[in-house]
């Protein structure tokens, strides 16, 4: 003779076993958060490396261009005309100043323009640079323009 409720218990056990089996068969998601955290942290690190490294490269290039422009302007301003040397005035030999400033600029690895305005020589260093780290962020070539100027001084009292 069957006891009352025995069939219900058997069915309940069967249902519980199936449920437990389904849970075991499901994909185990333990560690998924750690994997996503690693992916996001790596991406953020590469982005920061690109920004900091690339920004540093661009600053160095701008400083280098500024120095080259100032050196070329100083060299150009040193080209006083013969009459200026005799009279003690601050007149620059325009042709010689432009030629010397361009030579110094080219030797520094930059291209650019040279203007003479009275006794002042104005040099603009320009070039295109490609920062290595900013390539990681999709940034390509960057134009750099820096200007330097110098005044001709014919006497120590200026």
Automatic annotation (TrEMBL):
Keyword check for Transmembrane: yes
Residues annotated as transmembrane: 32-52
Domain annotation Putative Flp pilus-assembly TadG-like N-terminal: ranges: 31-78
Protein name (database record): Putative Flp pilus-assembly TadG-like N-terminal domain-containing protein
Key words, A-Z: Membrane, Plasmid, Transmembrane, Transmembrane helix
UniProt organism field: Paenarthrobacter aurescens (strain TC1)
Entries under InterPro entries matching the protein: Tad_N
